[in-house]
Amino acid sequence: MTEIIGIRFRGGPKEYYFDPRGVAVEPGQFVIVETAAGPEYARCVTGNREVPDEEIVQPLRPLVRVATENDRRTWELNRAREKDAFGICQKKIAAHGLDMKLVKVESNFDGSKILFYFTSDGRVDFRALVRDLAAEFRARIELRQIGVRDEAKMLGGIGICGRPFCCAEFLDDFIPVSIKMAKTQNLSLNPTKISGTCGRLMCCLKYEQEAYEDAARRCPKQDSFVMTPDGPGNITNVDILREQSVVRLDDTPEAPKRYHNSELNVLRSGKGSRDGIEIPRERPERWQAPEEVDDAELLIPDVETILEEPAAPVAPGTEGEKRRSRRGGRGRRKSGEKANAEAAPEAEQPKKAPKPKADSPKAEKADKPKADKTRADRPEKPERPAEGKDEDGGEKPHRRHHRGGRGHRKGGGAAPKAEE
User: Fold this and answer.
1) Residue range 322-339: average pLDDT?
2) More exposed terminus of the chain, fewer Cβ within 10 Å: N or C?
3) Is 341 in contact with 322 (CB distance < 8 Å)?
4) Are 418 and 398 spatial neighbours (Cβ–Cβ below 8 Å)?
5) Which of 26, 27, 17 is nearest to 50 (CA)?
6) Pairwise CA distance, residues 355 & 374, whole Å
7) Hey, which residues does 232 pair with through a beta bridge?
8) Taking the chain, what is the end-to-end CA distance rounded to the nearest angstrom?
9) Would you say 64 and 39 are in contact if contact means Cβ atoms under 8 Å apart?
10) Which residues contact 332 (CB under 8 A, 6 or more apart)?
11) C-alpha–C-alpha distance, residues 205 and 219, integer Å
12) Which helix (DSSP H) or strand (DSSP E) does residue 296 occupy?
C-alpha cells in the first residue's frame, strides 16, 4: 500500500496520483507539484489515502508544497499572459497566411514555456511562426496540433442532450465509436442526429452498446423464417428493447402481427430460401404477459386505513345499550350507533306469541265460532239531515269559508254576521 493524493490539472477531468511526502492535504486545496514539464499549479481532489501498488504508475511524482498567496498571484499573472499570447499568435498566423485555427494557449507555472494548441485539416509548416513567437515572448515555444474531439474537450460546451460535454465533464480518455453501434441500436443513420458538436459520432453511443448486444443475442434476426401461434411467416422488424418482432404471415401478408420472442420458433435465421425446410405441425404457445404491480400500491398504504380512528373502549355492562344522538338535525346518528341500529333488527328476531291454554278464557273465546252477521241484522245508520237544514228541519245558518289561514280576509275587514 502506498499513500497518495489525487490531483486534477486545469482543463481536464482526469485525476493523477502524487506522493504527498507526509504532508496532509485536504480536498479543494491548491498545491504545487512536480511534472515532466516542470512545476505546475493544480487542485487537490482526493486527500491522503492508501491505494494498492498495482494502481500506481511509476514513477510517482512528488508534492512540492501547498500553494501560498504568492503562488496564487503568479498563477493569475500567467493567465493574463496567456490571453495576450493568444491575440498575438492569431495576428502572426494571419501575417504568415497559415491554414490553422488557434484553440488554446497554456503557460507553465514558472513562465519558461508557452504551449499553443491548434487544429488544421492537413500538415502546416509553422517554423517561421515559431521563430517570431520565441522572439516576442522570450520563452520556449511549442505548437501542438490536436483533433476536433480534443478541441471540444478543451473548450467545453452544451450537447444536443442539454448537458455539458461528456469529454469535458467526466471522461478521462476518448473511447472508440463506430457506425455499427448506431445500427445495432436501431438509430437513425442521419449524421446530424448521431454526431456531436465536434462533428464526430457521439461518445454516448458506447454507453449502452453492451446492453444492446446482449439483447440482440436473444432476438431473432430480421428476415428470418419463423413459426408463430398463427402460422409461418417472415420477420420484417425486430424491437430489441421490448423483445418483440413484427411477422408477416403467409396466410395474411397484408396484416403483419407483433409477437413476443418466446412465441417464435426460428426455422431459418436471416435471409435465404425455404427449400428443404420442414414446417412443424405443432405451433408455439401464446405468451402471457405477467401482471403488472403498481409500485405506488406497494409503497403507499390505504388512505382509509390511515384515517380510521380506533374504536372507543366499551364500559362493561353497557354493550347492549343503544344510544341515539340528535346532533345536527333529525335522522343523524353517530357512525357506530347507526351500525348498531342496523344490526339490531337482524340480531333480535321477533318472538312468537305463546299459544293460549285450553282452560283460559282467551282459549274459550278463540274456540267459539264467529257468528255470521247478515246485512239485515246490522243496525241501521241514522239518516243525515239535508244540506242547509238542522236536525229539527230548520234552516241552518250559512257559514262563510275563507282560504289563506287565520286572519286573512278580503279587504282586511271583519267577517260578516250571519243573518237571523
Assistant:
1) 49
2) C
3) yes
4) yes
5) 17
6) 31
7) 227
8) 136
9) yes
10) 325, 326
11) 20
12) helix 295-299
The region that residue 71 occupies, defined by phi over 0 for left and psi between -120 and 50 for alpha, beta otherwise, is alpha
Q: How far apart are CA 378 and CA 109, in angstroms?
A: 137
What's the CA angle centered on 291, arms 288 and 294, to 5 degrees?
155
| CB contact set of 409 (below 8 Å; sequence gap of 6+) | 402, 415
Q: Domains plus CATH for the chain?
A: 2-67 (no CATH), 74-146 (3.30.300), 166-217 (no CATH), 220-268 (2.30.30.30)
Return the C-alpha cell found at 171. Answer: 471522461
| Closest residue by Cα to residue 112 from 63, 39, 184 | 39
Tell me the pTM. Answer: 0.58
C-beta atoms surrounding 105 within 10 Å: 19
Helical (H) or strand (E) element with 68: none
pLDDT over 90, % of the chain: 23
Distance (Å, whole) CA 31 – CA 20: 10
C-alpha cell of 8? 486534477
Report yes or no: 89 and 108 within 8 Å, Cβ to Cβ: no
Q: Give 81's Cβ-side CA count (13 Å radius).
A: 21
pLDDT digits (tens, 9 = 90+) for 204-217: 999 989 999 998 88
Which is nearest to 336 in space by CA: 318, 350, 354, 352?
A: 318
Residue with more model confidence, 80 or 309: 80
The C-alpha angle with vertex 86 and arms to 81 and 87, in degrees rounded to 5, equals 105
Written as nine digits, the cell of 374 is 247478515
Contact between 224 and 234 (Cβ < 8 Å) = yes
Element (H, E) at 115: strand 113-119
d(CA 315, CA 317): 6
Name the average pLDDT for the chain: 77
pLDDT, tens only, 152-202: 988 888 888 889 998 888 888 888 999 999 988 888 888 888 998 888 999
pLDDT in tens, 284-322: 888 887 776 665 555 555 555 545 555 555 555 554 444
Residues in the chain, overall count: 420
Which pLDDT value is given to residue 104? Answer: 92
User: Phi then psi for 101, rounded to 5 degrees?
Assistant: -115, 120
Hey, which bits of 146-272 come out as E strands?
A: 225-228, 231-239, 244-249, 257-260, 265-268
Pairing of strands 225-228, 265-268: antiparallel
